[in-house]
Amino acid sequence: WAAKPAQTYLKNAWLLSVCACVCRAASPQEEEDSAMENIVTEKKAEESHRQDSADLLIFILLLTLTILTIWLFKHRRFRFLHETGLAMIYGLLVGVVLRYGIHMPRDGTSVMLNCHVNASPATVLVNVSGKFYEYTLKRVLSSSGNKVDDVSDNENEMLRKVTFDPEVFFNILLPPIIFHAGYSLKRRHFFRNMGSILAYAFLGTVVSCFIIGLLMYGTVTLMKHVGQLHGEFFFTDCLFFGAIVSATDPVTVLAIFHELQVEPDLYALLFGESVLNDAVAVVLSSSIVAYQPTGDNSHTFEGMALLKSFGMFLGIFSGSFALGVATGIVTFTKLRDFQLLETALFFLMSWSTFLLAEACGFTGVVAVLFCGITQAHYTYNNLSRESQDRTKQLFELLNFLAENFIFSYMGLTLFTFRNHVFNPMFIVGAFLAVFIGRAANIYPLSFLLNLGRRHKIRSNFQHMMMFAGLRGAMTFALAIRDTATYARQMMFSTTLLIVFFTVWICGGGTTQMLSCQRIRVGVDSDQDNSVTEVPERSSTKHESAWLFRIWYNFDHNYLKPILTHSGPPLTATLPPCCGPLARILTSPQAFENEGQLKDDDSDLILTDDINLAYGDITVNTDGSGVHTSSGAGFASGMSSEDLDRELTCGDNEVVMRGTCLVFPMDDSEPTLKDPHMRF
């Protein structure tokens, strides 16, 4: 018994030594396999990097080719095809080549395993021979139990590479387009037609959305009866489709209007509607998606759920508006001595407005639009001259590149998107619904607006606005954001065809439509409004919204002195009891401008009377140098002529504001009955 434990010990020692020898022999093989695996991984990463570079190069070449062709068209004065339509054509051609001319099979093999889970996980960890691999959900291949045949079909790796994440359009490409629309807004003509623009943008977009939704619901019901519908399509889906196709983007028409110098009021109506109804369509589509009635069926009609969606619409829009205005006011740069830093800070604050609104649950499109309008009104005056030019040119360039990139991608997507659903009945119904919805937006509202407008919206203007209801970048971005279900895939495919038709046909026929409707061209908007007859100014006075005139006086006398260095100092507009507070809030530059302006004015005093209107204080100076002043009051401190002059200076980028010299009339002119009046 004593020898048996010793024998067992020796046996175990011998087994351990054998195992150690085997492990030592196997370890070099494992190290070699691991090294080979690392080499293969590095090669795949390098190939993927080269492939990504080639994909981006395709879009860069598309933009380059578009720019060169645009130059040729402008040189030849060819107006039948705009640059956006041209970008779409080039995108179509490249899409055809990628789809049918280049085939790059996917590396590796596809393994299909069945796993029953209640929800689709965003990330999956797979254990393969002791190594864990992480896989991220890319897209849904099929639903409702349909079998997937041949996962690696077909599938061209290049097509997968050139497909962008939809969030790229919302977070990177859309912000500069929307911001540029607000930053370059022609404030004079916009505010002269503000009531009509708001009616078209808000009420008209909602009317168009519901009319298109109802007509499409009838079309879908008919498709069910004839057996042409192969998936679920609810009334809320129809309303969502009506919301996204109600967003107009007449970039082609507006470019031709600008080049031909069409009548300013028509340009302002069309541009203002397109700017604001994009924001309305985004919030409206979000409210429709958020419609959730109680119960198992989430698509039944319920009054409380409808009111909740309406309240969400108002809350999101007002919150986004307030956030955009607040961010625009906060962007109060003090870096005038370092122009590059000043421009960089302005750019980052503008872009962060969009991201901040999205992160807070609001709509970035609305926030960045009103941020651009606010910064053009206030922050622009605080920038140095170099930064003013840089910001204008920077956002104009970003808008041009982003817009043409999106339209090029539209053409490419027609062939590279792998889940298209083209239904002839749905397409025909969509075109008819879009046409009827646009007509219901323009003609009834124009009739109602003309009842209160002294300067009527003429019938040829209405026909032109009806014709110019193009769909573009915003419609495409809203449609491509969600293509997971059968209904959304059909909506996206139909939306592409609507965009193609409106850009090519309606945009290409703009010049002919202007000629057919006998709309004036070659109108200088500045000259047309600076040299105006008395009846025209009277008309402008009556058409100016009383609420806007009250805000304008408050803004000119109180907000601009605080937020900018222009306008009258607060010491001249606030009551005498607020003198210390006025001196604290007024910047030193405003006092310097005031002194400089008064010194310059004194050099013009010769022997005639001069009437100096400064803010709401009038100073009369005669040849003996005696000064008399009188207050004009808050509500009447700004006339309609001063309002037009202020907005005109804003359009022409003239920074000097707040001072108006009124000289006596020439002896050769007829004498007025009122001796106190001066021109």
From TrEMBL:
Localization (cell): Cell membrane; Recycling endosome membrane
Record carries keyword Nuclease: no
Highest rank taxon of the organism: Eukaryota
Family matches, as InterPro entries: Cation/H_exchanger_CPA1 (IPR018422), Cation/H_exchanger_TM (IPR006153), NaH_exchanger (IPR004709), NHE-6/7/9 (IPR002090)
Domain called Cation/H+ exchanger transmembrane: residue spans: 66-515
Signal peptide start-end: 1-25
Biological process terms in GO annotation: regulation of intracellular pH; sodium ion import across plasma membrane
Key word Amino-acid biosynthesis present: no
Entry membrane topology: Multi-pass membrane protein
An example molecular function term from Gene Ontology annotations: sodium:proton antiporter activity
Membrane-crossing residue ranges in chain numbering: 56-73, 85-102, 168-185, 197-219, 239-257, 310-332, 344-377, 397-417, 424-443, 463-480, 492-510
GO CC annotations, alphabetized: plasma membrane; recycling endosome membrane
Major place of residence: membrane
Annotated keywords: Antiport, Cell membrane, Endosome, Ion transport, Membrane, Signal, Sodium, Sodium transport, Transmembrane, Transmembrane helix, Transport
Entry similarity comment: Belongs to the monovalent cation:proton antiporter 1 (CPA1) transporter (TC 2.A.36) family.
Protein name: Sodium/hydrogen exchanger
